[in-house]
Amino acid sequence: xAQNIYILSSPKHRSNAQYIxxxxxxxxxxxxxxxELTKTILLDMAKDCMVEFFYxxxxxxxxxxxxxxxxxxPLIDDYSxxxxxNNDTTVRLFNKEEVLxxxxxxxxNVKNIDTIIVNYPIYDIIFLSFGxxxxxxxxxxxxxxxxxxxxxxxxxxxxxxxxxxxxxxxTDMFFVVDADAEIxxxxxxxxxxxxxxxxxxxxxxxxxxxxxxxxxxxxxxLFSAKKVRDYIGNNVDFTTNVADGITIIPRIANxxxxxxxxxxxxxxxxxxxxxxxxxxxxxxxxxxxERRLHTWSTIGNGEFGKYSIAGAIExxxxxxxxxxxxxxxxxxxxxxWLRQKFNSQQ
Length: 346
What we know:
This protein has 346 residues and is of the alpha/beta class. The protein has helices at 14-24, 39-48, 96-101, 135-145, 158-168, 225-230, 262-278, 286-298, 305-321, 326-329, 335-344, and strands spanning 4-9, 28-31, 53-58, 82-85, 88-95, 110-113, 124-129, 150-153, 173-178, 181-183, 201-207, 214-215, 221-224, 246-256. The strands form 2 sheets. Strands 7, 8, 9, 10, 11, 12, 13 and 14 form an 8-stranded mixed beta sheet that branches. It has a 6-stranded mixed beta sheet with strand order 2-1-3-5-4-6, sandwiched between helices. Helix 7 (262-278) packs parallel to helix 9 and helix 8 runs antiparallel to helix 9. The N and C termini lie far apart (76 Å). 36% of the residues are buried.
């Protein structure tokens, strides 16, 4: 017989709790400000429980239970233990009568079952391209490792391309891979289970092969499909404005190989340095931005390094000059204008 199942949520984790509830069909959702399973909440769950045992699932993350039916019942000698699986306190099992008798003993009385019972959701992967020289090669590499990857090609406009992607995904969040991104062997899209809130955008670090910088520029991103579909703004930087906030994950996911030809190299440096110098990215630190601008403007390794430095210097000047004029800064998202600007200086 299945035991009772309760979900512990918080105001920030309600979407996770709803997702889990649809997976397990719980007997109730309890809220705690910091996802802390207090003695009071545990007692309330025990009083509500109609059977011998009850599970508590902490809604810190989204996960699924593909091969677990919640009917496990421990030996009678183990009734006074809180049971967990795979040394993970996300899922806990309690005996109702033992909790009602002495709730305090469960704070330290733990027995682990060495079995994995949860899976994390697998999100769609979308590759965005718009005429980049290495796009086909990079997409084929991506597809060879993750056959589920899909491609949106030739859609004009950054917002528009992302919204086209959001139309074809089948998961509530989706990864975006830029056309100049080469995923490093160590990165696995299916192992990113630290993602907590569907209302945020997540960005991984990328390696810049021209100047050695390592930060979110050109990195893999994870978006809420609904937030992208519903977005009606026209901000200069789409990624940092499409959702309720942004979380930077300081782990390398890819190399951003934007240095494939003179224009692509110049364009990438110009656009990034406009953003850094105009300070349009919410929460960016001035000192950090200045260090990155200095690196962009002084280091240019490789065949097209001089175009990266030139684009960085011009982008810095353009961003500082027009920092209070978002309608002019918007031009960095117009690739025809960028092409004309580049050609006029050659």
